[in-house]
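can u do me a favor
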């Protein structure tokens, strides 16, 4: 069982007395992550893969070790399948170029996507003339799998969010993999909201490409992960050229370095990798099954409370299909006003369109309030949040 009180001692930000329910935007950091970065700066800092001196070798080794830890976390075959980028957004943009689409090729995505898994494909539609199909929601505000099946016919690429950052809905990746298999499609998964909160096994799920961000999973911001099966990385062309990505350069040509280095031109965010490793180790020490279980427990209380207050929320009613976040609206109130009221009570939530404009349009709303949970949140905090909403409803009468 997860010991939340013990976990809370690791998070210095809690001294601010803020109830932090904006974890889907970015998570707070435990002292272990902060200390790992500080220790690296104080004792091992140098550029990687360049010098043969002790510090450079230590830093290079630590950087590679970080990839090994991340690879294990998502059950990749090898650390060579891990490319570090800046964030999920950058990973998805790169993936959209790696899959090498041409005019008439079909890409399937969904209406619930974050813009980061939508705009790179939309650009290819306008630039290259690919066909872009968008899967709709069903009456339960889940992905409509019949629509999926139909639209995925002969798709080259299926690119889907694993967990919606608005609906909290968890896509059935196994079922989507089956559809991909029937059509010989590549499966791209936006794991920005899933990897931090539920176990994600790229082999079990048959994922070809996975993107996620360190900053949403206790790690530093500015470093993200692009996982791809080794064969895909070997085939793909590097997107940035320069130092660090070559094995040799001649006056009129160059040879690429091994994977993953051919995708990491220039000095990377070395200390970010050190922090990400510490974050992954922290999550692993708790266990992702436990993280998921705990968040499900809390979200149940939160959603039951919203229902009791008669507040409209979005996404499936079936809690088995949801992760630890919920977006909602209070009748006649602007989402930002609700967030402002909660902020006065020292409760941090997100309000607005959450980088998912097409989804909000499809839901027929012009914004929502989102509360999103993580390992340091408590039942008491959820209760305080519900009490604050109750007070607000009374106030506006
Ligand atoms: C589902 C989803 N995809 C992509 C992103 C983009 O992540 P980042 O800003 O770290 O690139 C987010 C961020 O909120 C997200 O929730």
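np, heres the sequence
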């Amino acid at each position: 069982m997860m010991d939340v009180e013990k976990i809370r001692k690791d998070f210095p930000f809690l001294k601010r007395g803020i109830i932090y329910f904006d974890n889907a935007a970015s998570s707070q950091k435990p002292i272990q992550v902060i200390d790992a970065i500080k220790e690296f700066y104080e004792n091992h800092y140098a550029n990687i893969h360049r010098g043969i001196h002790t510090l450079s070798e230590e830093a290079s080794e630590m950087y590679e070790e970080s990839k090994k830890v991340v690879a294990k976390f998502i059950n990749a075959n090898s650390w060579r399948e891990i490319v570090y980028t800046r964030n999920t957004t950058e990973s998805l943009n790169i993936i959209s170029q790696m899959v090498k689409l041409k005019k008439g090729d079909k890409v399937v995505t969904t209406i619930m996507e974050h813009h980061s898994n939508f705009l790179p494909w939309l650009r290819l539609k306008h630039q290259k003339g690919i066909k872009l199909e968008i899967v709709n929601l069903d009456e339960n505000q889940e992905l409509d799998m019949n629509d999926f099946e139909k639209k995925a016919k002969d798709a080259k690429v299926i690119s889907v969010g694993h967990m919606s950052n608005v609906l909290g809905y968890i896509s059935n990746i196994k079922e989507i993999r089956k559809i991909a298999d029937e059509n010989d499609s590549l499966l791209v998964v936006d794991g920005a909201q899933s990897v931090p909160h539920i176990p994600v096994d790229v082999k079990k799920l048959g994922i070809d490409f996975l993107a996620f961000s360190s900053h949403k999973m206790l790690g530093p911001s500015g470093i993200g992960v692009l996982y791809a099966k080794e064969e895909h990385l070997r085939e793909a062309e590097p997107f940035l050229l320069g130092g660090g990505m070559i094995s040799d350069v001649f006056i009129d040509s160059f040879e690429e370095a091994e994977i993953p280095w051919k995708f990491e031109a220039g000095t990377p965010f070395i200390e970010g990798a050190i922090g990400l490793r510490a974050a992954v180790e922290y999550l692993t020490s708790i266990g992702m099954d436990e993280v998921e279980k705990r968040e499900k427990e809390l979200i149940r209380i939160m959603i039951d409370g919203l229902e009791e207050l008669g507040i409209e929320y979005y996404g499936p009613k079936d809690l088995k299909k949801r992760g630890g976040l919920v977006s909602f609206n209070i009748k006649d109130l602007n989402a930002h006003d609700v967030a402002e009221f909660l902020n006065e009570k020292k409760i941090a939530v997100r309000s607005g369109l959450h980088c998912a404009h097409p989804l909000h349009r499809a839901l027929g709303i012009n914004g929502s309030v989102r509360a999103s949970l993580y390992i340091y949140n408590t039942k008491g905090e959820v209760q305080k949040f519900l009490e604050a909403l109750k007070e607000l409803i009374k106030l506006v009468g």
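The longest strand covers residues 106-110. hope that helps!!
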